[in-house]
Target: tRNA pseudouridine synthase
Amino acid sequence: MNTAPSPASATGIPSVLPSAPVEYPCLPISSYNCSNLTGDQQDNDMKKLKPSTYKWRLVIAYDGTRFSGWQYQQSTPTVQCIVEEALTRITKLERKDLLLVGAGRTDAGVHAWGQVAHFITPFNYDSLEGVHKALNGLLPSDIRVREISSAVPEFHARFSVKSKIYHYKIYNDTIMDPFHRNYAHHSIYKLNVAAMRDAARHFVGKHDFSAFANTSRNDRVPNPVKNIFHFNVNEMGPLVQLEVEGSGFLFRQVRNMVALLLQVGREAVSPDIVPRILGSRDRKELAKFALSVPPHGLCLLVVKYNEEHLGLPPGGPETSFGRNHSISKCKLPSF
Model:
């Protein structure tokens, strides 16, 4: 069965949807070639969009093990770089024209289940199923586009964010489960989960998190006051899963909060240490009690937006969640 031709082809844009039997080869990670357009330059260029452009929202999952984070870097492969390369091949547009922007700049080694990004095109699509299939066909197996939809002009993957939810997993046993080694931090110390819950409650609410932020070399000076909506500590056998939702997070804030909770769980410090360090607003104060935890236990789970920003524009195609395939039953000959 053949896939319908790309609607863009009717407007003079090269067709991007081949017939179904064609398999897209996965691009080797060494072949990606990113330009030097920075994330901040992309944000500025978004303000200059022409009224004839169309905006598209992606929900992306990735295993961050071999990537140097989400955002573009000149020397090492990043998730943004690889997604952009696939988009340029599909749309026939250059990176500077796509203006791909992500909701969160995850660090090297950090995973995502619900990273959100948007890009623009000068043409519309009647259907997104073929584009979705083509995109995942080009991407390596550790990056998947879970969803693609049209977006209203007001939507911005980064600036429209209402809140984000992160998970951090700790494997709390004497011997590490090899199937969790890339997705959970190993703690051989028996953790007092009840004490960790008590400590986590002190993070909830609006606070100045300066003491829990590392200095970023290329970011603008952020507002250190963030609102934490919930911070849960769940025990599931040897796995201890920390879930935190907040209006936003400073550079390395989640990992630094987890590091302090680990010290509380080891009973090296009491839960009351949290408000003391928060009140200091000094990163050096945290360093007296805890070091940062490794990135591979962290996952960006969900990015939330206001409902009005998630609506589909009039006349846009339906959202694509991927397409299931079925095999027709063979009819055996009757004798």
